[in-house]
# Entry
Amino acid sequence: MVRHSAAELLAPCGIYCPLCPRYQSQAQSRCLGCRWDPHREFCREYHCVTHRRLMYCAECEAYPCANVEVFLAWDSFVTHRPCANNLSRLARNPTGLLRDLRQRERLLQEMLRQHDDGRSRSLFCRAAALLPPALLKECLAVPRAENGCRGRLLQLAKQAKIDLELRQPAPPLRVGCPPRRRLKARPPASLPRPSRGGAVRGARPARPAGSGRHLRR
# Structure
């Protein structure tokens, strides 16, 4: 398995891949990372920084541009919430940011190794991305028991007023955005359309009774 550096694992938009549930997933649909997964072809930020030969959006002269502002404001995936702070810290102190992210990654790996019960992996990822490292260390000190670390995480997050729900409610529709128009369903092209008089266009007139060739002598 290729070991990537923290600078490479930090996506152009500020997501740190090792703290994302999709990156830590054990399913076949597991994400390989924002810079290596085939789904990067659908990422606007990835294409933008690649075209400009940059690593991160924060390195661009146009940052913060409209694309980044829309992404930060409208993305409801909770582990993407630190993106804005990561990009801001990246511009001021990139070494300190990468050190902090590596520390969170190590705490997450230790949490998964000691306390993963098969259903808490996503919660641990969200907690590692949002909670301060001091609280994560406190949770690691909890004895391994039924819902021990999981329950402590939820308790500390509630005390710190940090929501660990996987997705946040969708934001309201922006003012001034026209509603989408509903297109009327058109009949298939293979079916003839009736005219105003009720007759079907292109249809042959009905033959009178007894006009068939097999009835002629």
